[in-house]
Design brief:
With 80 residues, this protein is mainly alpha-helical. It has one domain. It is 81% helix and 0% strand. Helix 2 runs antiparallel to helix 3. Keywords: Membrane, Transmembrane, Transmembrane helix. It comes from Flavobacterium chungnamense. This is CBU-0592-like domain-containing protein. It holds the Pfam family CBU_0592.
């Protein structure tokens, strides 16, 4: 496994962790932790996709990260 694969695996693993924690009701899908895990995971996966020059996944993961940032901002505003 090269470094690009390792970086991508970590990113996707974090996204999957958020998904599984949510599916088993360990974290809410509108909570800050859920959004943070998605932002971190998608950003890492986006970077890995950039490293291998795979633009479709750069777009996918970049969009995933941005949508999660919007969700986090909304979540923070609703709690204030």
């Amino acid at each position: 496994m090269n470094s690009n694969d390792l970086i991508g695996t970590i990113g996707v693993g974090i996204i999957l962790l958020a998904y599984f924690l949510n599916m088993f009701s360990l974290i809410p899908n509108n909570g800050k932790l859920f959004y943070l895990l998605n932002i971190i995971g998608a950003s890492i996966a986006c970077f890995a996709s950039y490293l291998i020059n795979y633009i479709p996944f750069v777009i996918l993961e970049g969009t995933w990260a941005l949508v999660s940032v919007v969700g986090l901002v909304k979540s923070c505003k609703s709690n204030t």
